[in-house]
Amino acid sequence: MASFLLNKETIIKEIENLSKLELIIVRRNLEEVISLIEAPSENFWDLIEAQGIDREDFEKLILKSSKSSKTYNPNRKPRQLKLENQSFLINEDNTLTLKNTKPTKKDIENGIVLTKYPDLSDEHKLSAKIIVDDYNNDLMKRRES
């Protein structure tokens, strides 16, 4: 097991360096993983039933009341990025990197400047469209699998 998962401060430090897009992906992944962690084992249910507690009553009172109303919904269509709303980093080699968020602390410290889609050159707009389309297609493929 990766030891950084056991240290809250390390996790927070890593999360602070992520872009908004990366945070969205991490949050979705964590929600899926947490649902696995929260799933009670059969041994747990055996212990509950051995105490004379009805499983359905327990689930209604304890498990459902403790879950957030904003739980992961596998049937929900993922949000697609809108090209016009995205910001991009123009790299030193004149390629683009999608950064659909405000700059992170790390970006600001490194002097990184983001360019909004409407402010890109025509050449960069074509590249930006390909990048966003690829992202949206990848998102849909991951969702289907």
Q: Sheet with the most strands?
A: 3 strands, antiparallel
Count of domain modules:
2
Uncertain runs:
none
The outline comes out as elongated
**SS summary, helix count:** 6
- How many extended strands? 3
How far apart are the first and last residues' alpha carbons, in Å? Answer: 25 Å
Q: Which strand order does the major sheet show? A: 2-1-3
* Computed Rg: 21 Å
Succession of helices and strands? HHHHEEHEH
> What share of the residues lie within helices?
40-55%
Mean pLDDT: 79
Question: How large is the share of residues in beta strands?
Answer: 5-15%
Overall structural class, as computed from helix and strand content, comes to mainly alpha
Describe this structure in words.
- The protein has about 140 residues and is mainly alpha-helical.
- The chain folds into two domains: about 5-65, no CATH class; about 85-145, no CATH class.
- The chain is built from six helices and three strands; from the N terminus they run H-H-H-H-E-E-H-E-H.
- It has a three-stranded antiparallel beta sheet with strand order 2-1-3, covered by helices on one side.
- It starts with 7 loop residues before the first helix and ends with a helix.
- The model has no long low-confidence stretch (mean pLDDT about 80).
